[in-house]
Amino acid sequence: MKKFTRILIANRGEVALRILRAAKELDIETVAVFSEADRNLLHLEYADRKICIGPGPSLQSYLDIPKIISAAEITDVDAIHPGYGFLAENAHFAEICKSCSIEFIGPSVEAIRALGDKGKARELAKKVGVPCVPGSQGILPDDKEALRVAHEFGYPVIIKAVAGGGGRGMRVAHNDVSLVNGFLQARAEAEAAFKNPDVYLEKFIEKPRHVEIQLLADHYGEIVHLGERDCSLQRRHQKVIEESPSPGLPEETRQAMGEAAKKLARAAGYHNAGTCEFLVDREGKFYFIEVNTRVQVEHPVTELVTGIDIIKEQIRIACGEPLGYTQSDIQLRGVAIECRINAEDPANNFKPSPGLITKFQAPGGFGVRVDTHIYSGYRVPPHYDSMIGKLIVHQRTRDEAIATMRRALDELKVEGIATNVPLLKEIFRHFHFLRGKVHTGLIEEYFMG
Ligand code: MV4
Fold it and tell me: What residue ranges define each of the domains in the chain, with the CATH number in brackets?
């Protein structure tokens, strides 16, 4: 069995620290790369080597493929872990890693290509019998076809860019006029954002839950699912709170979703960690919508309920090790909930609030995990995502997990910058949330007065 001597972490912030910790425990050396705005990152203190890869803006550092590859060549690493965001789902980057004989810690180039295109992923899912939202077959050639499909399934419908993400290139339509406009707008937006104007159409599911299945797959045909995460609590397509299991999801639905996700992964020749996203409607029916071919921000809730270190598994799988366990070995214990802590100002429409953190005190105690790179005296740079950490709790029941999260949020102190903690505290007192009655519109409906 080959084993990595050294890996490069092509990311920053909390996930870079998370990956470094996993590598250390596997006795693998780490190379950290950082931008000129990131000299104060915590994981740089623990890395075996660190290399500056350019100015603050991501395009000139964390997204600059030649700089990352050069750093990898200079330090003679065996593999690159891309984390999430930046180059994590970039098939071109994975291809370059391969051509340089550097292992990309993630799925194959072909799998990223097959599943990263949401239109292709949807057609593959339909082909292998995974339930999809009723809608167009393949991409829409023109607005005539959009109208025909909308009339076949009825309004409302949603137009989605095959290359879309973060809600961009997406339009909901309730009638013919808004559909024709939405079709053209979605195409223009997708062309501008992703250089790909292709869109498809689905029936619009009202007030759905967003439930996703975590998968691990090795190079020898073993695929397991690690249960689901409910990520319904979002604001403007940014997840805010995630939990596992999904409150009220029947066991047979969980098993059916898990098997559907595995079937799709198998059909795509998938290996490493991945996630299948589903919408669950108010009748409890589920529909596949897309695949994330990376590790996700919210992976810790799954780690806590399964006891499996997903980042270590990613590295082990990339080394060519077999999973060494099967579906029947996976058990879900208790309830885990994650809050994303963002440097943003609730009083100012959640505008990013970078700056100096004058004081940071982390909560702790039974059932509390804090994944963050911040410390007292850390300065949040203005160039990147506003997420500065995650608070994750694990308890035997959902009520106990909520009590622990409330206590942890009360202990948490982040001073000097504005954060979304006041919003999180409100949500943990909201009657719908407390009863597990969550859906993707809940935050906008109740908290965005
Ligand atoms: C949907 C949907 C309803 N019906 N698809 C949002 C992000 C992307 N991953 C998929 N998303 C959605 N897809 C169908 N067929 C609802 C969402 C959705 C959403 C849509 C419009 C405005 C806000 C939204 C918030 C969460 C989810």
Answer: 6-105 (3.40.50.20), 134-203 (3.30.1490.20), 209-447 (3.30.470.20)
